[in-house]
Write a structure and sequence with these properties.
322 residues, DUF3074, two-stranded antiparallel ribbon, 8 helices, alpha+beta
Length: 322
């Protein structure tokens, strides 16, 4: 079960004080409860971040309180989308503006919270349903059914598609493999790495990162929960991807390489507003790449690194999928 502190933390993040999102928040708490019940770790994130100040920090992700957050900068990435293939209304390409920010205070482990927010104008695309279908499918593995200006889940096409695609458009990811829930060892049988219920699905994966030619490879074990779409009273459709820290053990790892254990925790939220025709992609993260890489260097670099996520995904979508 979630602790009261964990509940308050996530209520802050999902804006429980907003009346229209109350049910959405309660659903998310159930999702997190489901995810936590499957974790072998006693600590929810398995990273030193669960304290009262962090609850306030998460609360201010959307309020941008200057006492907790500071803007890094707005990264403008021009993603040139082929008009004939992507059916864009702008033949000169689409400019994606990603706002990044990070906490002004560090956690007990000297890490900083970092976040990004990108707004995609759906009117840039001639066929909104076609674009959203490809976008949502390749980011989440979900196929949505679009009828009468509403979306519902059609099918879970591939629960592992999010990670498979990440390994193709994030240059630092060298490889990934699925892990068994029971003992966190590698397993080729995807069924042993997957849990599905009526709120979404949870997978167990291990990712190998090559951050630099001069640094040792990093290993991140993660539980990744993808929620089924949730429609709020305001009509906004929300989908969440939650990455939790899995066990750090190298037990059962046949890779003889010297792997440094890293930790990664994030919450991503997609908001589809069919009235304003906007798609908003938000994310906050707390991570530690481990080893001897100084925290202040990690903290300095994090905003720039996460600013590449959205344009890289969009470019991958164009080149490989469309």
């Amino acid at each position: 079960m979630l602790t009261e502190q964990e509940k308050e933390t996530f209520k802050f993040y999902f804006n429980l004080e907003s009346k229209d999102e109350t049910q959405v928040t309660e659903n998310l708490l159930q999702i997190l409860d489901t995810a936590k019940s499957l974790l072998p770790c006693s600590d929810f994130t398995n990273i030193k971040s669960s304290n009262a100040s962090d609850a306030n920090t998460i609360h201010n992700v959307f309020k941008f309180d200057s006492s907790f957050w500071k803007y890094n900068k707005t990264f403008k990435s021009k993603t040139v989308l082929d008009h004939s293939k992507f059916n864009t209304t702008n033949q000169n390409g689409i400019i994606l503006d990603t706002l990044t920010f990070k906490s002004t205070k560090t956690t007990d482990s000297s890490s900083v919270w970092a976040g990004r927010a990108t707004i995609i104008d759906l009117l840039e695309f001639e066929s909104v349903p076609d674009f959203l279908d490809k976008f949502i499918l390749n980011l989440t593995g979900l196929r949505l059914n679009y009828t009468d200006d509403k979306y519902s889940v059609d099918n879970i096409i591939d629960p592992f598609l999010h990670t498979k695609n990440e390994s193709k458009y994030i240059e630092y990811i060298q490889s990934y493999k699925t892990l068994n829930f029971k003992n966190n060892t590698a397993n080729d049988n995807d069924n042993s790495t997957l849990f599905i219920d009526d709120t979404g699905f949870l997978i167990n994966v291990s990712l190998i990162y090559k951050l630099s030619p001069i640094l040792a490879l990093r290993k991140f074990n993660e539980y990744i929960f993808t929620s089924l779409p949730i429609t709020g009273d305001d009509g906004i459709i929300s989908i969440f991807l939650i990455s939790l820290v899995s066990q750090d053990s190298n037990s059962g790892d046949n890779n003889a390489q010297n792997l440094v254990i890293g930790k990664y925790f994030s919450i991503e939220k997609l908001e589809i507003n069919l009235i304003s025709k906007k798609l908003i992609w938000k994310m906050i993260t707390l991570s530690d790449s481990g080893g001897y890489l100084p925290k202040f260097i990690q903290n300095m670099a994090i905003c720039k690194e996460i600013s590449h996520d959205v344009p890289n995904f969009m470019e991958y979508l164009l080149k490989e999928i469309i």
